Amino acid sequence: MQRKLLLIILDGVPWRNWRRLFGNLEGWVQSGEARVWKMRAVLPSTSACCYASIHTGVSPQVHGILSNEVRFRVSQPDIFSEVTKAGGKTGAVTHSYWSEFFRSHPFDLVEDMEYDEPAGPITHGRFHTMTGYGHDNQMTPSDVDLFATLTMLAKRHGIDYGILHTCTLDSMGHRFGHDNTPMDHACAVADAMLAAFLPKWRAAGYEVMVTADHGQTDRGHHGGREDLQQDFALYYFGDGQGPAEDTLLDQLQLAPTILTRLGVPVPETMKAKPFLS
């Protein structure tokens, strides 16, 4: 690999809340250590649809994941498959949907919760399911535990590409919406937890992207076409050259951009242009 990169996905945070509530991330932008752009999610802007598009670089209408309830192993090349094909090591600390889409479906609670497979697309996987999730019980692990697990994979196994995905803020948003005291506090807590780990990842030689899969409305909804539902921030820590700060990025650009930064050939199915060079 030419470089190492970590992708951090905080599920369900709209553009507005990124820019006003994540003081640590904004501080790094202000100091010049990071850049930030607005990115727009695919449609439907539903979680599973976005996950599959983030990693394959194709729309839901192509990969076929059209709702959270319709899940299978996608057939298109993805970031995991292409990195391991090029000889790199991958790591995932995510919701179990990512394992289903990019390794095997259905998810086996015993066999698939944690695995280390040198020949697999996901070399080192650590997953959670949120089984029993509802309005009154989020069933989400602590974000700091997830950040620590990703750091462990980087330190212990030397992964070249790693993804972390947490649903805490998405779940908070479904319960409270995105314009209230609990949500303000939840975003600030996530920002502070992330701030404790991001300098360590940079010191270990990783470029880092921090972003969301979609936005969310003040009533806690996403899935449709609307700026609040589709638009979110992407913060980039690295040496790549990017577009003007007012450029609106397409979510389908994320996969080919990550592969390009890693020095991995971009498959023909990923037709969107990388936004970093």
From TrEMBL:
Example of a GO MF term: hydrolase activity
Pfam families, sorted: Phosphodiest
Domain of life: Bacteria
Name the UniProt record assigns to this protein: Alkaline phosphatase family protein
